[in-house]
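Batch manifest, entry 17 of 40.
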Amino acid sequence: MTIVNLAYIPSPPQGVWHLGPIPIRAYALCIIAGIIVALVIGDRRWEQRGGERGVIYDIALWAVPFGLVGGRLYHVMTDWQTYFGPHGKGLGKAIAVWEGGLGIWGAVALGGVGAWIACRRRGIPLPAFADAIAPGIVLAQAIGRLGNYFNQELTGGPTTLPWGLELFYRRSADGTVDVLNLNGVSTGEVAQVVHPTFLYELFWNVLVFALLMVVDRRFKIGHGRLFAMYVAAYCVGRFWVELMRVDPATQFGGIRVNSFTSTLVFLGAIAYILLAPKGREDPATLGGTPAPADAGESLAEPAADDTKDSEDVAETTEEGVTKNPEEAAADKPADEPAENSGIVEK
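Output type: C-alpha cells
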C-alpha cells in the first residue's frame, strides 16, 4: 500500500486527452498559450515605444515558425543519442515536437533569424523589436514549463522537502507502465518524490519578467540592451537549475551541455550590454515602411503634386483667365522688359 504525503505536489494524472482520434496534449497547449501571451505583451510594449500596433504579429509569422524549428533542432542535436543512437527512437520521434523537447537557445537563435527577415522587410530595427518582446518571451517560457509538469519531466533528484513532486507510474493503452509514459494515465502509485526543477525555473522566469519591466520603465533601456539583460538573467537561473537536474542529457566532463551553453551565452549577453549604445531609439525610427497596399497610394501622391506644380506655373489675370508665361509677357507694355519670359529679341 502506498502512503501519500499530502504536503507533496502531486503530478497530473495524465498529459494527453483525446477528442476521437485527435490527441490534445497539455505540453502543446502550454506552448501555444505562452506564444499568445508573449505577442500580446510585445504588441502593447511596441506601441508604447512609438511603433505601430499590430506589427509584432506580422513579425511573429516569421519568428515563431523559425523559433519552433530552431528549438527542436537544438534539442535533437544536444540529445542526439536518444534519437539516433544504437537504441534511438528514430527520425519520426526526432520531429515529434508536440511530445516535448524544445531547446530555448535554438528557439531564440533561429527565431531571431526569422525576426530579422521580417524586420528587414518592414524597415524596423531588430534591436528595438527584441527589447519590446523580451519580457513576453521569458514569461512565455514560464508558461511553457507547465507543460513539463504534465509530462512529468525535467526534474531533479529525490527530496523530502514539502514541495517535492510526486511522480506517478503511468499506464498506456497497450498496458506499458512507465513514469515517462507521455500517453499514459496515472496508476495512482507514486514512483518517486523529486525536486520540481521545472517549477524552480518557472518561478525564476517570472522574477526575470518583473525585473525587466521595472528596469525598462525606470531607465528607458533600448538598442537591444533589454533583450541582452533578459538573456543574461535567464542564463543565471538556467545554470543552477541544470546543476540540479538528473534527467538524461549530453555531458562533457560530467557537466551538462546546457550548463556550458548558459555560461557562453551569459558572457556574450554581458558584452553586448557593455558595448551597445545607451538610451533608447527615437520613436520616429520605429515606423518602418508602409505595407504593400499603401505603396501604390504613396507613389500616386507625388505624381499628383507634380501636376499641381505645373499648373501653378501659369499666371491668373484679374479677370480670372489663366495664361501661360509667354502670353503673360506679351501683355506687358512694350517699354517694360519682360522678366524671365524666355523670348530673345533679334
